[in-house]
UniProtKB/TrEMBL annotation:
Homodimer. Belongs to the Nudix hydrolase family. NudC subfamily. A divalent metal cation 2 binds at residue 189. Zn(2+) binds at residues 113, 116, 131, 134. One of its GO terms (molecular function) is zinc ion binding. The keyword Magnesium applies. Its cofactor is Zn(2+); Mg(2+); Mn(2+). InterPro entries: NAD-cap_RNA_hydrolase_NudC, NADH_PPase-like_N, NudC-like_C, NUDIX_hydrolase-like_dom_sf, NUDIX_hydrolase_CS, NUDIX_hydrolase_dom, RNA_Hydrolase_NudC, Znr_NADH_PPase. GO terms for cellular component: cytosol. A divalent metal cation 3 binds at residues 189, 193, 234. Binds 1 zinc ion per subunit. This is NAD-capped RNA hydrolase NudC.
Length: 276
């Protein structure tokens, strides 16, 4: 997908022409040509659709996302996870599908009012679901989380979750608690997960993360004290690694890899990477 072919745009109701993304729980239906299907073709399929939302324009043509009740499989198609897109495809496609996935998940979760249980309706002119009986409104939401690289001179603190592929180590991460700043979250999560204190926390960038409602905020922090003491239910192993003796690292397109490569470039005098 060439640069700048996709743009967010409000459409309500969805257009009667254009493209459709078929979404179900952070997965998209795809064929050999990609994830965008002609609307007139999709309308001919026997699909159980929970919601339809116009989300933007692709090459000037309207795009809508259909949230499917089940992961139905059409001939010649397969389901592609948002994480696969992040790791294997271009940034423009990831932005398009990341936006569509958030809207689709939001539409699935807010068909009924969480206060009174009545059916909700799309509010005209806004990206919001509204309950007429009680007045509750629900907008698409984000759950901010932080990810941080902790360093000590030429050493990087990297850790393993039990969920990681064999041999891979990454940076520390965690979700913000209510009333907590992102910097407070960095300090708390590092203390909880590995027993260390940090200072000189600086923000480096953010990334839409392939997890419902998640926005990952990336930081770099300096070691300030303490000995490694692992949170057993979260951390399988954590170690200090020298810059010339690193383990298997996260995938290149991830923000975790960006934080690591940014630090290595600084220490080695190389060109700083970009988080596009």
């Amino acid at each position: 997908m060439p640069e700048a072919r996709w743009q967010v745009a409000w459409q309500s109701p969805p257009s009667a022409s254009g493209w459709v993304l078929l979404h179900q729980r952070q997965h998209f239906l795809a064929d050999d040509h990609g994830c965008l299907f002609p609307l007139n073709w999709v309308q001919q399929q026997d699909l159980r659709c929970l919601a339809q939302h116009g989300i933007g324009l692709f090459d000037g043509a309207p795009v809508q996302v259909w949230e499917l009740a089940e992961p139905e499989l059409l001939p010649g198609c397969r389901w592609l996870s948002l994480r696969e897109v992040m790791l294997q495809h271009d940034e423009q496609l990831f932005r398009l599908l990341g936006h569509a996935s958030q809207i689709g998940q939001w539409a699935r979760e807010h068909r009924f009012c969480g206060a009174c249980g009545q059916a909700m309706q799309l509010l005209p002119g806004e990206r919001a679901m509204a309950c007429e009986p009680c007045g509750l409104r629900q907008y698409p939401r984000l759950a901010p989380s932080m990810i941080v690289l902790v360093t000590r001179g030429d050493e990087l603190l990297l850790a393993r979750s039990p969920r990681f592929v064999s041999g891979m180590y990454s940076t520390l991460a965690g979700f913000l608690e209510p009333g907590e700043s992102a910097e407070d979250c960095v300090r708390r999560e590092v203390q909880e997960e590995v027993g260390l204190s940090v200072d000189n926390i600086r923000y480096l960038g953010s990334q839409n993360w392939p997890f419902p409602h998640s926005l990952m905020l990336g930081f770099h922090a300096d070691y300030a004290g303490g000995e490694l003491c692992l949170q057993e239910d979260e951390i399988e192993d954590a170690r200090w690694f020298a810059i010339d003796q690193l383990p298997t690292l996260p995938a290149p397109r991830s923000i975790a890899r960006f934080l690591i490569e940014h630090y290595l470039a600084q220490r080695l005098g190389h060109t700083l990477p970009r988080l596009d």
